[in-house]
Amino acid sequence: MMIKPYIVAFDLRTERTQIIRPPERINIVASDIIGIGKWEGKSLCLIHYRASSRVFALELMEKSSNGGIRWVTMHEISLDRMGLKEPLNVMSTLLNEVVMTTLPVFATHEDVYTYSIKDGKFKKLGPLELCLASLIPSSNMLRSERIDRMNF
User: What top-level branch of life does the organism fall under (predicted)?
Assistant: First the structure.
């Protein structure tokens, strides 16, 4: 059974819920990892890790003048271009803001990594001593969790 993915947004100011469709051009499969974050403190950003191609796509949500929503691909980041040639099982991802720079962060079964889009530098942050990781940002109210092997 195919389930169409969606994002549920809750506005704390208005106490209203909105269902937002992800970009039509992306095909989400069960092995992919999806995260959300704020891009440079302003816009919602969908993080789509395609396990089959080992690529992260950062999709920025923009509102058009007529009130509609459109998605713009901001960056595509390949694990191979980062220098990670060995097989990795990415389990969770998020965006972290450090000194006005947005950094993608991701966890595997063994370690946590980050990548600087600005200077193209990849960094291993350290070992992960958990069996199942779910990265949760602490600087804002966005929360990203993964339901294991959910069919989209």
Answer: Eukaryota
Structure-block tokens of residue 121? 């530098």
Give the C-alpha separation, 149 to 121, whole Å.
31
Q: How far apart are CA 18 and CA 46, in angstroms?
A: 16
Three-state DSSP class for residue 80: helix
Q: Is 45 helix (H, G, I), strand (E, B) or coil?
A: strand
Taking Cα atoms as reference points, which of 146, 30, 52 lies closest to residue 94?
Answer: 146
pTM flag (> 0.70): yes
Banded model confidence at residue 145, pLDDT cuts 50, 70, 90? very low
The arrangement of strands across the sheet holding 92-98 comes to 92-98, 101-107, 111-115, 122-127
Question: What does the block give as tokens for 110?
Answer: 């063994």
- Beta strand segments in 99-147, E: 101-107, 111-115, 122-127
